[in-house]
Design goal:
Length: 251
């Protein structure tokens, strides 16, 4: 009898918009035996009215994922958190965790964990967002204890346009940030809606420093919580760390 789908883990994801790119990149990088169980909140545009609208939808999505018996939940959508300011993710997490036994993590905290894991303090941030939203991200990471010395964005407001960006768009942003801020500890590509995971390994080797991304950080954070530490190569040094981490790191 063949193994059931998701025989190792069922990963629940709450996506404010669609989550298409994140799910595609997760399956490309993660080991076999994991299935994503998605819930989408239908965010159309990254503006204040739309962001406010989706807040009330998170709890219903988590309740649905509890019914689906997932093993871990990612509350996607860093813009809804940065729109409210540093620490707002704790409000979302407290509400969500009351509805499900599986561990819940906010995507923005996955990003923080990723940068901490690679030992970064001085960082540069790349994003597909508008300048105003990118600055909110920079402010969040500063409040989280990082020295953000440079940012670069593509000025896009509609998530669907981010998902349609070519795979080398994020690599171009990395190269531009490397020229602008050559002395940073790491370059971080925020937003899981644009493709990034395929653009991490090469620039890391060229620059000799970590290049992390939102999608990559979700893979890292969920696998750690699931205790899955398979060897993963070709998707950046952050994921390569998993197989070398002690078992306690997955708790």
């Amino acid at each position: 009898m063949s193994a059931r789908t998701g025989w190792r883990a069922r990963v629940g994801m709450v996506h404010p918009s669609r989550g298409d790119t994140l799910m595609y990149e997760y399956y490309r990088a993660a080991p076999p035996g994991i299935v994503i169980v998605p819930a989408a909140l239908n965010l159309k545009e990254l503006n204040a009215a739309e962001l406010d609208r989706v807040y009330e939808s998170y709890e219903a999505a988590v309740a649905d994922l509890a019914y689906e018996e997932v093993d871990v939940v990612v509350l996607g959508g860093s813009p809804p958190v940065t729109h409210k300011g540093y620490g707002f993710e704790r409000v979302l997490l407290e509400r969500a965790q009351r509805l499900i036994r599986a561990p819940v993590v906010a995507l923005i905290r996955c990003e923080v964990e990723a940068l901490q894991a690679v030992g970064a303090k001085r960082i540069a941030i790349g994003a597909p967002y508008t300048p105003a939203l990118t600055e909110k991200f920079a402010a969040y990471f500063r409040d989280a204890g990082f020295d953000v010395v440079a940012t670069r964005c593509l000025g896009i407001a509609r998530p669907v346009e981010m998902a349609q960006l070519p795979h080398d768009a994020s690599a171009e942003v990395v190269r531009a940030l490397a020229r602008e801020a050559p002395d940073v500890d790491a370059i971080h590509l925020t937003c899981p809606r644009w493709p990034t995971v395929a653009a991490l390994d090469g620039p890391e080797r060229q620059l000799g420093k970590p290049v992390t991304s939102s999608s990559q950080s979700v893979i890292y954070a969920t696998l750690r919580r699931l205790g899955i530490r398979d060897e993963i190569r070709g998707h950046g040094s952050l994921l390569e760390r998993l197989s070398r981490e002690p078992a306690a790191a997955s708790a």
